[in-house]
Amino acid sequence: MLYFGARPVDGQPLASEDRRPHALQVPLRRVAGGPTRLVGESDVRPPQVVEVVRFRARPGVAPGDVASMLHGYTAEMNKFGSLLYRTVAHDGRGGWTCVNYWTNRADKERLNADAQTWSSLARFGELVDTSTLDISSFAVERPAAQ
User: Fold this and answer.
1) CB-based contacts of 3: which residues, under 8 Å, 6+ apart?
2) Taking the domain 27-139, which CATH number applies?
3) 11, 62, 71, 89: which sits with the fewest CB atoms below 10 Å from its CB?
4) Domain coordinates in residue numbering, the chain
5) How far apart are alpha carbons 96 and 128 in whole angstroms?
6) CB burial readout 106-128, b (16+ within 10 A) else e
7) How much is the pLDDT for 141?
8) Are 90 and 28 in contact (CB under 8 A)?
């Protein structure tokens, strides 16, 4: 199980004790379809973009069906060489979170556009409540060299 603490909404760092989380979100459970390649182990390129995809399965959809769809999607993503690492988590109540680490934003956008035609996503609308789909991406900040 993975628990995340609530972060300050203003985006400020957690440098002082009063800014650290005082409550935890609902735990996430890691499911099949997890990592693709480990950054720094089999691929030394550092990620430039992290993408967080959150959604809820439609009522009555089995978690195994969503996991199977995501596994196929991950296999397709791996063919392009721009996805460095991916984790998939399920909260046990229909909520899903995928965290993707990409080589760069242009490759991420190109792959996501191409993905709309993949057979691995053909069932997406049947399995997922698309009104709950939330995709955010962020540039990875690197500490300045000293």
Assistant:
1) 24, 25, 27, 28
2) 3.30.70.100
3) 11
4) 27-139
5) 10
6) ebbeebbeeeeebebbeebeebb
7) 78
8) yes
